[in-house]
Design brief:
This protein has 561 residues and is of the alpha+beta class. Helix content is 54%, strand content 10%. The chain has 5 domains: 85 residues, Phosphorylase Kinase, domain 1 (2-Layer Sandwich); 171 residues, Orthogonal Bundle (Transferase(Phosphotransferase), domain 1); 32 residues; 134 residues; 113 residues. A 6-stranded antiparallel beta sheet has the order 1-2-3-4-6-5, with helices on one face. A 3-stranded antiparallel beta sheet has the order 7-9-10. A two-stranded antiparallel sheet has the order 8-11.
Amino acid sequence: MLDIGSIVGGKYKILNKIGEGGMSTVYLGMNERANRQWAIKEIRRENVRNYDILRESLRSEIEILRSLRHPCLPGIVDVIDEDGRFLIVMDYIEGNTLKRALDDYGPQPEEYVIAWAKQLCDVLSYLHSQKPPVIYRDMKPGNIMLQPNGSIRLIDFGTAREYKEENEGDTTWLGTRGYAAPEQFGGQGQTDARTDIYCLGATLYHLVTGKNPADPPYEMRPIREIDPTLSEGLEKIIWKCTRPDPKERYQSCDEVWYALEHYDELNQEFRKRQKLKLMIFLLSFVSAASFLTVGLMLRISVKTLREDYYQKFMENALVAENESEKNQGFKEAIRMHPEEADPWIKLMEQVYLADNDFSASEDEDLRTLLITEDDEGISYEESLLRNSKAAGQVAYKYGLVYFYDYESTGNPGMALKWLNIAAKSSGLEKHKADRAKRLEKISEYYTNIGVEDRAGDVAISYRDYWEDLAAVTRGDIAKEDNPTTAVMVYRQTIGRIYESSSAFRDAGVSMEEMTALLSEIREHIKKDLSDINDEKIKSAVEELENSALLAEKSIHNTFSE
């Protein structure tokens, strides 16, 4: 036990005890020099039978958390290994666990649980998108903190692991009985993203029913048998999440998120109403079609008819002046041929980027479209990915947009999935594949650039960042790619020079290197973009020239300090 008022690690003062488990105790500590509070988790050798195993598990937790940045995850600040005890200093999270909410209030309201579940899907999806994917493996109410603002935080990564494709199975079983998927017991293959989906389903079951699946007889019944007021849609979602066979579960957290977003549509009454509407539409369509030339209709195959509709939808969308009509037209074309690149790219260029910004709501709309299924139960995204060449083209475009234009500033983390697909595509031009690989690399370590204080190490230096940034920028991008991509790349690079010239200087990037790259960009702007007769490009060129002047001043100011 740590004494209240004692100092650990030479700088953390223990204020009070805030939690205790069988193997560890958590304290509230204060770094008085930084005037900030932290949570300090203590594991003492005498409290643990397999101390060395647990210690290694915790080291794994620390290494995983240090590389992650997500609003639903805690950050690791420091590690102290002294006097026969192991201390982890991490973000202090206000609030209580969902287990405490269950203990105090019993089953939680369905609408609350669904809101929490969507946040959990988001953070699990983030973990699964890492390279290699991080599998959490211990989702349960006791590992979820509910903060005063209603948001949640996922804690305790002691059982998390990185997914390795060459492994046939996990070396050890870790998790909590009742919540753990069958494959976590060993001998049934390696745990993967679907393992976390099972644990999520078990957690939702406990939250809405108040029945702990970790209590004998370790079973989960349909939730409406326990509480008939719960929705049929949520019952189906939990049932599918917790199938013993991973192949019968949702295959990604994006699918679970979409199901939760539309859980009311899984109810029988809703499905009956939708089926009736479809029948009425088909009857109306057939009646109208009967007035057309019957002979002609008989000679047209289903494939030809689909192709005709696809072409018509594309033509109408391309000439439509109304953004809503464009949106609908391209989506209908995707419905006809989700494996084609054109409608996906045009949807992005002419609808989502119509205002030169790809917003969070547009991202949500796109995600919904990607996981929409055709009549055979195949998602549009899966159909696209089956066409490697088209998938590469779409992924390259989407990767650039997420990297440079998401919410105006770009989000490399969200770009990673698409850049990975583009980098591996065999049908993408070499210069584009090379650019995708470089941006993928930047995306992987982007949030760690220059991080020093919290963990005491610099994960990625600004020198590394500069080399990759310069490599992505060089070449005639307007000719190799297109003017819009050139504008996106130049805007980002100029902005980074302006904002981070001091950090680049401190990492060993010379004034001559910065000035040379900036001059090269300005030359390309003048030679490749200035004569293009497009109002958006003209406006962008003017903006780039002004930004380049500011970046140039920033360089001179930095090296005159």
